[in-house]
Protein 1
Amino acid sequence: MIEVRNLTVERGGKPILSGYEFSLEAGGILAVLGANGVGKTTLINTLIGVLKPRQGTVQVKGKVGFVPQLFEVPFAYSCLDIALMGRARHLGLFGSPGKKDFEIVRHYFRMLGIESLETHAFNALSGGQRQLVMIAQALVSECELLVLDEPCAALDYKNQDKVLKLLHQLQTEHGLTIIFSTHMPQHAVEIATDVLLMTSGTHFMRGKTVDVLTSENLSTLYDLPIARANFDGLPKHTFAPVFRQQEVRNDGRSD
Ligand SMILES: Nc1ncnc2c1ncn2[C@@H]1O[C@H](COP(=O)(O)OP(=O)(O)OP(=O)(O)O)[C@@H](O)[C@H]1O
């Protein structure tokens, strides 16, 4: 579905990524993790064609939908207007949305549980509500590859769960291929088939989540001890940072 080869990307004349290579099969979910400023947004913008590589290639099969990290609009658009913008590629240059376009938007609003927001002003919504409207905008474009830049960054636990369930459902029931960036390894544990760990602009680890998402690799990625944590009574695990480790004394008390 997507194949990236020997990718080098510059911003402001400086190399940000160099020699990046990975691929994702159709129907997979790739989670992209890395420290602040390592280049996740740069990579994502290159995958969707907004940034041009200095060197290397990005090959994508199928239509791409994109959900940006933070989104504000300059006018008082309603949520319905915002989502309808996702139909643009189906309308032609001077086309206006018809009955079918409204039906498609309403279908996805119902699926996301945001039908009550239809007439609300987009800019007056909370970050989480906006995120769901932007996901609707991407889905109404009837994309095959959905790319999301930190889709859960502004969301509380309940809404994180909602978005993760939705992404999983889009993969399993609708066959979408998904790429998302995140600062939460648990989100990759929950839904990603594949991970890309961006250690630096030139170093990265990629592969199946079960093989690559380990406490050792995450400790390297974040330059901080990361422990695997199991949940009592649940066949689940996550990863937890060991903050302030050097300040914890042998008696277990911290300074
Ligand atoms: N428009 C720009 N011009 C020049 N340099 C830029 C520009 N945008 C980003 N950069 C630089 O590119 C590098 C990567 O930024 P990017 O936003 O891709 O990182 P990120 O991993 O997404 O960070 P975060 O986790 O904080 O969102 C940073 O050093 C940043 O300063």
Note: The two ends are 51 Å apart (CA to CA).
Protein 2
Amino acid sequence: MAFEEEKKELHETLSIINKQYERLAEIPEYIGDDFTENVLEGSRQRVRESLTIAKKEPYFARLDFKEEEKEEVKATYIGKAGVFDEHTGDVLITDWRAPIASLFYGFSGSEDDVYYLSPDGIVEGEIYLKRNIVTYNQELQRVVDRYIRGEQEASGGDEFLLYKLEDQKDNRLRDIVATIQGEQNEIIRYPLNKAVIIQGVAGSGKTTVALHRLAYLLYEYREQLTAHRMIIFAPNTIFLDYISQVLPELGVGDIVQTTFPKWVMTSIIDDPKCKLESLSERRKAFFESGTAEQNNWKGSLEFQQQIREQLSQLEKDWIPEEDFIPWENKKGVPLEQINTWIEADFKGNPATKKYDRLKAKLTRWIEIEAKMYEEKKEQEQARKDGKKELRRYLRKWKKRKPYELYAQILKKMERTDLLPPKDKITLDDLAPLLDIHDYWYGIERDERFDHVVIDEAQDFSPYQVSVLHARTKTASFTILGDLAQGIHSNEGIDEWENFIDLFGTSRSKFFQMTKSYRSTYEIIAFSNTILRHLANRPAYAEPVFRSGEEVQIQQVDTEEKLEKITSWIHDMKNKEMKTIAVILRSEADCNAVYPKLKEKIPELTMITTEDKSYEGGISLLPVYVSKGLEFDTVLMVDVDETRYPVTEQTAKLLYVGCTRALHHLSVIHSGNASKLISNV
Ligand SMILES: Nc1ncnc2c1ncn2[C@@H]1O[C@H](COP(=O)(O)OP(=O)(O)OP(=O)(O)O)[C@@H](O)[C@H]1O
């Protein structure tokens, strides 16, 4: 009955949507200068975009709600984009980000107090029905009731989530609007002006939630935010490619998605002679060698403080220790006066602005003083001499680029050993260089961010976050990561307090996500055992109860390894797994097996740190490259005592590799199995 009812409803809604769409498609796009016409075209364009989304999938949920003191129970259909009936003005489909839709995600069935916050205040009432609706190609596929008032447990909620999680994955992360969970909803809708810091276990949906949060913020705070002033920092180009689909699916464009090094080098260090070290070489060296822990001094706030102290000293030393006397035997501007202007009148301006303002002030002073001469000719001459002298005086203030200032600072600190060659700037130098740049040149208003997202933030240093903080209008951040996956121990942090302290507790909000949606119960239980070896272990992942096959652990002779990998891949292909990954400890290990394996499995692709995109299918990759990605099935190779000895670093690497698997995980080793997985 519910199915028939929804089929009729869908038919009627689609007929209105299709008609509206066709009508708008017939109106030619306005390309002219008329202001009113442009505003009208802008709003038509927005409606066209919403209708395009709605034509594909009009809605995915229905919520029946009765407002307190009203008789009528109203059905709200929730979709990715809101749609109005252009004739009646009625809401046909409610945007998933609208306040009432929050009830759909947040209401679990047992709350006494049911309300949502509308722009006019709190709206209380009762929920009668929560229903998921699946459509495909404008046809109704499935109707699942998650809550029916008065009935014990409709609980199609879990069933529907499982149905979604059992799906096989392709090469892109997808939106989750139909199944956002209560705790995820809370983070997505958390108010704008705080730093939201999320520690989430592998597969808890951190990246997905952060992207949905951006779409939500742009909707809820549309008056305050602009997409092009929001930025997402992700760990590498493959990952950026992997997540690139989600925001367009949610109808959001224009948000800059980049990596921190790329952004600093292209947007800030505007110096063609400055070149960044090869990050893939750096990471390869770090991961392929033994994994010595390194102290990231250049990423610390203490280092920032020292840089700042030196900068302020440099700024003082920058002012020539002399009066400005443009004309012989006449009064000039005493040094004392210049210092007062700089320290009092120009206070708060960055060094280069102070320079510009002093130049303007001295130019005006020359103009006024020149008028003291009676003769026009004398005035002219005085002006000319004055300006000449001003140029000489200003030449003493040498213009400096961030790298030169950095070199000077490190020299003063007697740490020239820390200065990288100009054509091999290291990742660790980027925060100091950015800081120096912003201190010296200042940050223009339109360069400040409205909101910053940092994914895999455990690999960011406090110094990096601190300089980004200074570039963000309010402390509006979404910072997400997992300490258990902090494999770049030489770059990042080992406790979130590092960031919380930076913003202050009143300006930040810490969330923990412990439910893991990606993997089966068996895979999560297995991966959790690896975490026992971490000294500073965050909470264990809790599975959504989705059971699959046991994790297979097998010893194979070295000579049989290739054969084993090949037969495993064939086996997985037979099971119709779409994304299949063979994960090895290092790139050198991948190189050693790739040619022979490729002969047997021609569709195999090898992914390295240098790759820019992930194409799905069958992949061979080093474990550290797999971070952030996911695959239907994973084979972890060489999980033995030599390649994975018991250290913090290898435990994290192995954990990252194993938690990439959604439905199936196999582990093979030659020689003794790593102690990280013994006694499992
Ligand atoms: N509420 C949900 N409904 C359906 N799928 C979900 C939900 N939350 C997360 N997922 C799925 O779980 C998987 C993991 O999500 P995501 O990659 O965002 O997690 P993560 O915490 O960033 O993972 P990791 O740290 O391991 O890289 C994705 O396939 C995502 O679609």
Note: Residues 161, 164-165, 173-174, 176, 179-181, 184, 200, 202-208, 482, 485, 517-518, 628, 630, 659 surround adenosine-5'-triphosphate (CB under 6 Å).
